[in-house]
Amino acid sequence: MSGTKTSNIRDPRGSASTQARTPRWQELARLKRETHFFDAVIDEIDGRMIRIGEHWLADFASCNYLGFDLDPEIMASPAEQIARWGTHPSWSRLLGNPRLYPEIEERLTELLGAPDTLVLPTITTIHLTVIPVLAQCDMAGRYSAGGTVLCEAQAHRTIFDGCSVAKGQGAQLHRWHADDLDQLRDLLRRAAPDKPRLVCMDGINSMTGNPPDLPRIADLCREEGATLYVDDAHGFGVIGERGENETSPFGLRGNSVVRHLGESYDGVILIGGFSKAYSSLLAFMALPTETKELVKFAAAPYLYSGPVPTASLATVLAGFDVNEARGEAIRADLYRKTKRVLDEIRALKLDCPNTSGFPVIELPLKDASDIDEVARILWDRGIYVTLAAYPLVPRDQAGFRVQVTASNTDAEIDRLNQTLRELSPYLRTW
Ligand SMILES: Cc1ncc(COP(=O)(O)O)c(C=O)c1O
């Protein structure tokens, strides 16, 4: 499940034994057998409609927020670059970078208004390999083993995994809660001041769709001399800098949470990716140039990983063009469509954590044991969502998550809203 949080997947280390886990895995196997929402094979797509076997459903489970996966200009872009570069530039980035790489990094640095950027294949790769480096080196690359990583309690599972690797390499690891900054201050003060301290958290939260209190957290990190490491996988492409000409509260340019909240990159490393709003495969870090040089040579992927295929580099560049030419209109449309769903949810008085208008909409069930019946209704009405079922989430958080994209049609939104009305007796209300 793409946006699953560490807090939502019960940490396997918490179980006493494999035996204790077995009933949970059996429940997962049962869900796979009896609902249609796990390990589905999609046979065909038509716009945002998907066919699974003989059944057509409106897809509200993809993270292609801007609809770039279906944009004719972007779809046409790989052919020309493949004719020029072949299908795959199979050097590690250390050995050779097709010119597409510096072009992407230059355009991305300008878009984000960041000091510099480094692109690597995926965010997961970045977390697993870069967090351990930043736990033993400061941003200027001075090595000092035994630093501290402070992972926010709701941080994405892949961040937590990166922090765990850092711990395995000698770092101290602590959790903190975004709504308790005194706790964060306390942990920062108790960590060795002469060693690196890295505070890790999500930007737009992948379950609630809400942003963090970045200005206060960034200020606290600066006061305490710590580095803030923010994963805005979902926000990049959708939210951006605020301005008079903005077409929606998402802001302008889709240049991510730091710019959206009027923050600076001072002491902040931003992580993002192209695999959601940009419908491509590539991830980035926004960081000072000296930290970029450190990461290039101290973390494995720049040196040793194979690069992403040419088609991904081409669709990233075409995505920048479309974002420049039509991004504001697309975001306005995405905002309007998301609002139609959120308005329905409010009219039905459904409990929903989303207060931002972001196209990630989580709907918890009153009773987790209704999940099969809810899945059946969704399937029968032709609505495909991310099912948040136990054991993927704790029982009290069972429900489903809807993601709206700009390429969902209004007819699909009508169908979703109609289904939400039917499902409302099963959903938590306020
Ligand atoms: C917040 C967050 N971080 C990281 C990832 C993983 O990104 P990638 O596929 O680039 O490894 C996801 C994917 O769902 C995510 O939601």
UniProtKB/TrEMBL annotation:
Pfam families: Aminotran_1_2. Residues 94-418 form the Aminotransferase class I/classII large domain. It catalyses: 6-carboxyhexanoyl-[ACP] + L-alanine + H(+) = (8S)-8-amino-7-oxononanoate + holo-[ACP] + CO2. Keywords: Aminotransferase, Transferase. GO terms for molecular function: 8-amino-7-oxononanoate synthase activity; pyridoxal phosphate binding; transaminase activity. Residues 1-23 are annotated as: Disordered. Its EC number is 2.3.1.47. Gene3D superfamilies: Aspartate Aminotransferase, domain 1, Type I PLP-dependent aspartate aminotransferase-like (Major domain). It comes from the Bacteria. Its cofactor is pyridoxal 5'-phosphate. InterPro entries: Aminotransferase_I/II_large, AON_synthase_class-II, PyrdxlP-dep_Trfase, PyrdxlP-dep_Trfase_major, PyrdxlP-dep_Trfase_small. PANTHER family: CLASS II AMINOTRANSFERASE/8-AMINO-7-OXONONANOATE SYNTHASE (PTHR13693). This is 8-amino-7-oxononanoate synthase. It comes from Actinospica durhamensis. The lineage of its organism: Bacteria, Bacillati, Actinomycetota, Actinomycetes, Catenulisporales.
